[in-house]
Amino acid sequence: MSEEAFDGDYLFDVEQFRVQASLSLETPVATGEVPVWTDNKARFIMLYLHYFVLLTKHGTYIDGFAGPQEECENDGWAAKLVLDSDPKWIKHFYLCDLDKAQFARLKDLCSRQPLYDSKNRKLNRKITLYHADFNAAIDEILGAGKISPKQATFCLLDQRTFQCHWKTVEKIARYKKTGNKIELFYFLAIGWLERSFAAQKNLEVLAMWWGRDDWNELKAMTREEVRDALVRRLKEELGYKSARAWPIFERQDGGATMYYMIHATDHPEGPKFMSRAYRKVVHPNEPIEQLRFELLGESKPPKSQVSPPPDSQRSA
Ligand SMILES: C[S@@+](CC[C@H](N)C(=O)[O-])C[C@H]1O[C@@H](n2cnc3c(N)ncnc32)[C@H](O)[C@@H]1O
Q1: What digits encode the pLDDT tens for the residues 157-172?
Q2: Residue 183: beta bridge partners?
Q3: pLDDT tens digits, one per residue of 235-260
Q4: 14-313, CATH topology level
Q5: Would you say the CB of residue 136 lies under 6 angstroms from ligand 1?
Q6: Please, what is the angle between helix 166-174 and helix 203-210, to 10°?
Q7: CA proximity to 66, closest of 162, 135, 141, 157
């Protein structure tokens, strides 16, 4: 149903729901009429990666703030959903959390991972856990040199408010010297931003988060201006070909925008896959063959691709 054809009442503000095209350089993408809300934001991320690995057949997933949001296990935990997702073609996981109890939950999740897939083939996955400040752990993750330029790599930065330093974002974006940059899913907690600014007495925290001296100017901006400033920095300073802010609402029927999930990617298919993930988040997973056909134009995979090839053979 197109927006123009709809003459009833929306449950939420359509203007707010429409994904903004950053800097008017990018065409807006369709998001459908059902918003992604806080309870299914993890599924939104998982679904995007699920689509992407059908293309790459491999992947590396970094989750900097990986402990569960609800402090109990549920279907809203991104690290769990990504690990559980099939086919299990993401081979390398780097999961980090600073909090002791949250780290214990990560360890427990990791210990419960299957060693074999549904066809009894050994799963060749490596999960590395960090009980650390991600702003420090990132040096170890990237410094090990294990992520090759050809490896499709994704980094979830699901901070509560100001935990992820801009320097960390910069290091991730600048890591690959060739090929597509590491993709970012950067959470901007817009719903309580003003309150958080006011409550934050340690100004160093704000300076590290924003990474520039002009962070104080953000206080006078509207939420949309802050969103656009971040999008602009990801494109102009860090050189991402695409950066788009996807609204995450308070409730299933809309309400306030709680976060923007800012997706920064160099891959031409990235925004299309994200648009699909946004629209499909409330639906059950589509059959793989149907997805393959719709996303990649393949009705059947060639025999050689039934098992994923080694990371080095395909690049995102
Ligand atoms: C919003 S929650 C993450 C939610 C999670 N992505 C999910 O899907 O449920 C943020 C997490 O970051 C952790 N954290 C806070 N500061 C951190 C830091 N500097 N480095 C790493 N983890 C941190 C918290 O302990 C918390 O578990």
Answers
A1: 999 999 999 999 999 9
A2: 154
A3: 999 999 999 999 998 887 778 889 99
A4: Rossmann fold (3.40.50)
A5: no
A6: 20
A7: 157
Contacts 24+ apart (CB under 8 A), 122-125: 123/88, 124/91, 125/88, 125/90, 125/91, 125/92, 125/93
- Give yes or no for a contact between 139 and 171, defined as CB atoms under 8 angstroms apart: yes
12: Cβ contacts below 8 Å, ≥ 6 apart: 35, 249, 253, 254, 255
Segments making up each domain of the chain, as ranges: 14-313
- Give the Cα separation of 64 and 80 in Å (integer): 14
Grade residue 32 by pLDDT with cuts at 50, 70 and 90. Answer: low
Q: Which of 37, 81, 98 to mutate to test the pocket of ligand 1 (most atoms within 8 A of CB)?
A: 98
133 lines ligand 1 (CB under 6 A): yes
Calculate how far, in angstroms, residue 155's C-alpha sits from the geometric centre of ligand 1. Answer: 13
pLDDT over threshold 70, residue 173 = yes
Residues 6+ apart with CB under 8 A from 2: none
- Residue 73: predicted pLDDT: 62
DSSP string, 121-186: PBP--EEEEEES-HHHHHHHHHHT--S-TTS-EEEEE--SSS-S-HHHHHHHHHS-SSSSPPEEEE
Kindly give the distance from the C-alpha atom of residue 97 to the centroid of ligand 1, in angstroms, as a whole number: 6
pLDDT band at 315 (very low <50, low <70, confident <90, very high): very low
Q: How far is CA 221 from CA 188, 209, 250, 252, in A?
A: 14, 17, 22, 28
Pocket of ligand 1 contains residue 188 by CB under 6 Å: no
Q: At 143, which amino acid appears?
A: G
**Which helix H or strand E contains 245, and what residues bound it?**
strand 242-251
Instruction: Give the pLDDT score at 71.
Output: 62
β-sheet bridge partners, residue 244: 263
Residue predicted with more confidence, 220 or 253: 220
- For position 29, what pLDDT does the model report? 52
Residue 66 C-alpha to ligand 1 middle, in angstroms? Answer: 5
